[in-house]
Amino acid sequence: MQVSTKSLTLATLVTTTIISNISFLSSNNQVSANVPILKQGNHQINKVFSPAPSIVGNWKGSIGSKGDDVRTVVEIDVSSQPGAIKQGSWKFWGSDVKTNKDIVLQSGTLVATVNNNNTVTLLFKQDGKKFLTFNTQLKNVKQLSGELVDKTNIQIYLEKNK
Asked: Out of the domains of life, which is the source (predicted)?
């Protein structure tokens, strides 16, 4: 088979054109597939948002006179419910000398009222009657402390359990 110069030139031209078009199309697709990459800069968070302290949960601590080493162990449980007024229960714990075990000495219901600026009024009730009232402050998400109303030398310190 004889190939003429015209046929050879035409075949070369067609092949070159096809290869050029394929290269052009692939480079166009490659360009459109490139996604701009953002460079890292010095970004700062202006405010850190943390959850507001909550009175809801189990708290344990003590009640005692200012400057006195003798303290009564207290535990309160505050239920989750909408609004500023929360219901719960309280217990005073002691030790049974015969069995050497912790026992509940007294218990009752609790009304915790959350006021402005994280102040909390704790109303301890026994048999449905007012027993003790403390004005307290939520210091952070884990600590609550304050004083007995009308007897500021009696203090309460509580820490929130997990």
From this structure: Bacteria
